[in-house]
Amino acid sequence: MRSHFDISLPIHEGLVTYEGNPAPAREWLTHLEKGDAATVSHWAIGAHAGTHVDAPSHFLASGASVDELPWDHFCRPVYVYDCEGTSLIDGAVIDRMCRDVVVDWSRTGVLFHTSNSANLTKPFHSQFVALNASGAQAVVDHNIPLVGIDYLSIEAFGNPLFPVHKILLSRNVAIIEGLDLSGVGAGPYELQCLPIKLMGADGAPARAVLHREVGQ
Length: 216
Known about the structure:
Helices cover about 10% and strands about 30% of the residues. It has helices at about 90-100, 135-140, 165-170, and strands at about 1-5, 25-30, 40-45, 50-55, 75-80, 110-115, 145-150, 175, 185-195, 205-215. The relative contact order is 0.25.
């Protein structure tokens, strides 16, 4: 028997967005309540809204777009790692995780459960928990194939050079941002995360679900 956890943020017009990014907007083209034959809506949404993946082309000029990534890049074993109380995920945190958690890190991604989870429904705040460059390099050094975090960016706000994204994406590390891990405990899971196949896009919203054997 398996338990299932939807760790996706619902898309709506009041969704918190990264500073400078547009909020989702909806327009009703037709509606049953107006006597129309069908309800049809038009949505305007950024590629990095809510739960989403980053494609290498987000920061690398010759990087792949989201539609060029293999679908199973984001579907694999993962470990939800408890970082509550950690203000910065640096190389020491990654090294400690890889020492203490016994999994095959060359096959297993990591989802960082931080204090960010309490702020996902609040207005954007810039002091969220994120990786720094040493943390990103440690992810690469340990051959971890995927990272995810419970806020809108894997990288701290305000660094104009974006070293974390560049280190990870240049080594084909999959990035998922905007995960809702508030109802998920630490431990091993199976992740299914499928980004929308937007041709040529630098990222895309995604539906992300965790599966776990009961008692695991």
